[in-house]
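EI: anyone free to look at a 86-residue chain?
SC: sure, send it
EI:
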Amino acid sequence: MTQITLEHQVVLPQIRVLDDYEIDGVLDKDFGALYRLWRGWNLLGTFYQDLQGKWVAQPSLSNSEQRFDTCEEAQQEIISKSGLLI
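SC: here you go
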């Protein structure tokens, strides 16, 4: 039997996402809490909060990076960009 010990807990902000989407989080050494937005098995993008309190959206398969006031706006940017990719 394998025992897994979690060293860090990522607390997700209170986020309302459509039923087709899921969010999980991992600790990144550069960004801190890095949230991943999924639709099924497809990673649509990631987002995190910068030191100034802005939410940075990073859609998958894109070099663009935009900053928003809320995590919901960052998610919406990722979802809208993913429509162009899928």
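EI: The radius of gyration is 14 Å.
SC: 👍
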